[in-house]
Amino acid sequence: MTFSDLPGMLEELTGLFAARIPLTQRPADGYARMRWPKLLPLMKFSVKEYAAPGWGNVFSMATNAMGGKMRLATLVLTPNLGAGVPLLLADVMAMGRKRAAFVEYYDCTAQGAPASALRRAAAEFRPLPDYPEKSAWYVSERAPYSLIKGGSDDDALLRMLEGSLRAYAEDCAQAVPGGAGNLAGLETFIDRMVREGNPSSAALTRVLGKSGAEIFFRTAVMPAVYQPANG
Prior knowledge:
Elements: H1 6-18, E1 24-26, E2 33-36, E3 43-52, E4 56-65, E5 70-78, E6 87-95, E7 98-106, H2 116-125, E8 147-150, H3 154-174, H4 181-196, H5 201-221
Antiparallel strand pairs: 1-3, 2-3, 3-4, 4-5, 5-6, 6-7, 7-8
Helix pairs in contact: 1-3, 2-3
């Protein structure tokens, strides 16, 4: 797993989760390969979607931007079948020697997720340098064990990403399934992500238009309603 191969990184991180929570890849239809603009594209997207029966949905997207000068990876794990765990949004950026690795947890559960493994992982990697980010409404919504890191130590950031995914998979494997009360908070949060903005809003709106970007977000990126493998 390296910053020079972000699609490969997404495959490995997804695999760490799939080792505990089995996944089935869904057809991404027209979203699998997107580009903008279509002639001489400045942004190219590679999308994969997965169903985790009994748990929820997983989404990954590798992006080449600025003609390949900036590379991005996004992984979203949405527990939309009611498990008592937070939603996980991981974002990775590589541009020249600049690095950023965000592991964001959003606890939408009714009673609050125990997140014991996540808290242990956060304590281990908390000393890594913080990455300065712009203010946004969702920053204050993050769980305190989220990690927003940067710096020049690739190996440490990669260990953080791997350790975080292993911890999340562990908590998900031990979570009590089927908490209907957890879904209301998740739906509200996803609604805010669409209406108040999310990290990919601007890029997706350029590619798909406003209504197309909303449909993509709600059905692929972060679906509040479970999307089955054959859906």
